[in-house]
Design goal:
The structure holds two protein chains of two kinds. By secondary structure, chain A is mostly helical. Chain A contains nine helices and two strands. Chain A starts with 5 loop residues before the first helix and ends in an 8-residue tail after the last helix. Chain B contains 14 helices and no strands. The chains are: A mainly alpha, B mainly alpha. At the A-B interface, helix 2, helix 4 and helix 9 of A face helix 2, helix 3, helix 5, helix 8 and helix 10 of B.
């Protein structure tokens, strides 16, 4: 971290753990749950949000002195929507199958509360460099949780990772399946995403009791 | 009429915004601590969805989709502006929310006081944009159906937030493990409720409708079957071919020998 001062490094590292957007700030849940049945989709979503947040935070931070505060929400929405259109077109051009899987959830990055939340809380009050770091940090914290959920759901649900059969072949009964292991198809259904997030929160808060909420 | 009723119940129970597609989770989790505030937000969501989905349906139909500009004249018939839908939909939603806020404040101060604080929140609620995007991707046919879809998805969201708020009010008196308190247990309860709502899935396909659906599946198995089953089907085919070849070849050999 030679280039970054301690304060700047904290901007990136904090959201990865103790100030995580999903498990602590409760932002951006919708997409985290809906597209995590496969690891690949989770990774693409994480990268897309990383791009939109990093760029968006810089743009908003550069314009922060000329945006009238009354219409700032619309300005923010337009900036995000433009960036999301770029992401959507790139996905459609280079990864068409994947963009079909993600369907409307690429568009829903626009209303992902993390992005609006960080614009309001950080980019409107800080310079472009620090805003960029904050955006990258929060998107990375979001992406980290997404990849963890996607990892467990794909591994336990279909026995694959990124489409590679890591646990053996369920039809020819090789690997773990030779010992009578079965895929838990329930992990692929949407309700399990919520329960996996609940369990992640449980693990995180029992490791760090300071995060426990009052009832 | 029948399709209206079907869409209505389908959007409330089977495709419930919260339990099936996880839309609007942020405000669902943040504003569900008390039943009264949950009711306020839920009502505002119903209202805004019922207004914005038909608006965006008109935009999609007459401005955005492939060939939608044909009403301007034949030379415009080739335009496809659907890449602009995100920005136009969100602009419509944001302006409608502002407009609704102003109108409600002017004509019904009591409603404004109960909805007021939630209206600006709604512009960035993914349930609203999600409603419009699903309306577009599911290809809803008429303006009436679009209104119906907006209204009934709103009602579904309202029911979900009402239920979770009531449960959270009660769970305050229970002995939840400390690390799960608050957010964690809410996630897990929502997951369990979603499992419950999955049982509505058979509501429209059960009974008489099951027969035609099976026929459809039987007609197009090779084209659109995804992943494993397609592979398995192909393997079966190739095995069959191998067998027939093997059966044929000795026969031909025999013939040649004879």
């Amino acid at each position: 971290m030679g280039i970054l001062s301690k304060k700047d490094a904290a901007l990136i590292l904090d959201p990865l753990a103790d100030n995580n957007p999903i498990t602590i700030q409760v932002l951006g849940i919708c997409s985290a749950l809906a597209i995590t049945a496969e690891l690949e989709a989770s990774i693409v979503m994480a990268v897309s949000v990383l791009f939109v947040m990093g760029m968006g935070n810089v743009v908003i931070s550069l314009m922060r002195n000329i945006i009238p505060s009354k219409i700032r929400i619309i300005v923010q929405l337009v900036v995000v929507a433009t960036l999301v259109i770029v992401v959507d077109q790139v996905l459609k051009a280079f990864a068409y199958e994947l963009s079909k899987t993600l369907s409307v959830f690429v568009g829903l990055i626009i209303t992902n509360c993390i992005i609006m939340g960080r614009f309001e809380a950080f980019a409107l009050a800080n310079g472009p460099k620090r805003s960029f770091l904050d955006g990258i940090g929060n998107a990375a914290g979001y992406g980290f949780i997404l990849v963890v959920i996607g990892f467990f759901r794909e591994l336990l649900g279909s026995g694959t990772l990124l489409g590679i059969k890591v646990l053996g072949d369920p039809i020819e009964k090789t690997g773990l399946y030779a010992f009578g292991y079965e895929n838990n198809g329930f992990m692929l259904l949407s309700p399990m995403a919520l329960i996996v997030v609940g369990l992640i929160i449980w693990v995180q808060r029992s490791r760090n009791p300071a995060l426990i909420e009052e009832n | 009429m029948l399709e209206h009723i079907e869409l209505f119940f389908k959007s409330i129970f089977i495709d419930n915004m919260v339990f099936a597609t996880f839309l609007g989770m942020c405000s669902y989790l943040a504003v569900s601590k008390k039943v009264t505030t949950a009711v306020g937000l839920g009502a505002a969501v119903i209202f805004v969805l019922a207004v914005t989905v038909p608006m965006n349906w008109l935009l999609d139909q007459y401005l955005l989709r492939d060939g939608a500009l044909a009403w301007l004249g034949p030379e415009y018939a080739d335009y496809n502006l659907s890449f602009l839908s995100f920005i136009l939909f969100i602009a419509t939603i944001a302006t409608m929310v502002q407009l609704v806020e102003i109108v409600v404040e002017k004509f019904s101060p009591s409603l404004y006081n109960s909805l007021g604080i939630f209206l600006p929140l709604i512009a960035v609620n993914c349930a609203i944009l999600g409603g419009s995007l699903f309306m577009q991707s599911r290809d809803i046919q008429t303006l009436g159906l679009a209104f119906n879809y907006g209204l009934s998805s709103g009602i579904g969201w309202f029911l979900a937030i009402l239920a979770i708020a009531a449960i959270r009010e009660k769970i305050r008196y229970s002995n939840v493990p400390a690390p799960l308190r608050g957010l964690g247990i809410t996630f897990i309860i929502t997951g369990l409720m979603a499992i419950g709502f999955m049982s509505f899935g058979g509501m429209l396909t059960g009974g008489d409708e099951a027969v035609p659906q099976e026929e459809v599946v039987a007609v197009v198995p090779t084209q659109e079957v995804s992943g494993l089953t397609a592979d398995a089907a192909q393997q079966d085919l190739s095995q069959n071919e191998n067998e027939t070849v093997q059966e044929d070849s000795p026969a031909t050999d025999n013939q040649i020998n004879e």
